[in-house]
Structure of Serine aminopeptidase S33 domain-containing protein:
Amino acid sequence: MQKVFIKNRKNQNLAVIIEEHSSPKGLAFVMHGLGSFKEQAQIETVAKAFRDADCTVVRFDTTNTLGESDGDFALATTTNYYEDLEDVLKWSTEQDWYQEPFILAGHSLGAICSGIFTQKFPKKVKALALLSAVVSGKLSAEASASEVKEWEAKGWQLRESRSKPGTPMIKLPWSHMVDRMRYDLLPQAKKLTMPVILIVGDEDETTPVKHHKILYKALPGKKKLEVIIGGSHGLRGPALPELYEICLQWIANLPP
């Protein structure tokens, strides 16, 4: 495993982990969600499935999160997460281990970023794995309508990190949601013709199963929807072994 720090388009440091396979059968990028980090349990679990399937695996911390990259969580937006994904992928093209098409996997906000990139550059992506996906800003606002209404009225929302317990509470400004509302996977879902898997917990109230069913219906190609019983939005704890097995089996069934 190698850890490097690279620069994004804003000259900020991005922490990147590369787990290079000596004879890779593929290349996979795994992206965390809002306020998360590259070593979080569900990200590690998905990365392990790709490693065990003989892929080179890349994980990274976006800026404005709780990992090792620069920034401030209070400034986190879907746009900055997406731009950091683009910048990591651009940097990767200059590395010896790079190959196309590659596999993209993302959790929550990382899922919508992965999906948006794939819609923009479908020929670059061999397959797409979306975990607890934010399908659209509009749907995520509707899922917690009363909280969002209060957030808009106050101008900020206090956020407690579930990925790093003990982290001080963060004031996330309303501008985060204004930015998120710009993004939606549904209008261009027809471009996701590659194999796509959607994985969600049945107890996920943030990005519920019904959102994934909407996206699933809109997908035109080979697709799979897996619902983990007892799984929360973070797919933590007891959900992790099933998450691993689902990912490993899906990877094994991808075309060469």
Notes: Residues 20 and 96 are 10 Å apart (CA to CA). Residues 2-135+183-252 form a domain with the Rossmann fold fold (CATH 3.40.50.1820). The chain has one domain: 2-135+183-252. The beta strands are 2-7, 13-19, 26-31, 55-60, 102-107, 125-131, 156-159, 170-173, 196-201, 223-228.
